[in-house]
Amino acid sequence: MVGEGGQIGVLSIGEALKIAEAEGLDLVEISPTAEPPVCKITDYSKFKYEQKKKQKEIKAKAQKTVLKEIRFGPNTDDHDFDFKLKHAINFLKEGAKVKAYVHFVGRTIVFKERGEILLLKFAQSLEDYAKVDQLPKLEGKRMTLMLSPKVGVSPKK
Fold first, then answer.
1. By C-alpha distance, which of 75, 74, 68 is closest to 126?
2. Tens digit of pLDDT for each residue in 54-92?
3. What is the DSSP track for 50-105?
4. What is the pTM of this model?
5. Dihedral sign for Cα atoms in the order 138, 102, 90, 130
6. What domains are defined for the chain?
7. Peptide bond into 74 cis (omega under 30)
8. Which end of the chain is less crowded, N or C, counting CB atoms within 10 A of the terminal residue's CB?
């Protein structure tokens, strides 16, 4: 059993409850899997509040992943490709994931090979900055490619 001042020792449940009651506090089980189980004499509402606070801190420190999308057409020209490539490089340097997709409108669906070649060229151009999470895959009228930043790429300052 642990109290406000430190470790009290190994006690029976009855003795621990009497001590907690005498101090006007609650007996809270901290580690039920330990042998013997660890309990603490504390105010239960304060204990729950501190637990919530710790969870919020952990959640705030967790890195949030941002997903940026870049759209191509199956007939995208070299200049547009280079322009979108520069944007993708900036997104990856900021630590965001990139989802590049070719959107087939109307009869352009017959140019599936062009879309796939375009996305593979895009992935190859970004190989210094990103690793491929998902190779080009056709889903309805869209062919998508997922990229995530390489670990060695430093964020832009």
1. 68
2. 998 888 777 777 888 999 888 888 899 999 999 999 988
3. HHHHHHHHHHHHSPPP-EEEEEE-TT--HHHHHHHHHHHHHHHHTT-EEEEEEEP-
4. 0.56
5. positive
6. 13-60 (3.10.20.80), 67-149 (3.30.110.10)
7. no
8. C
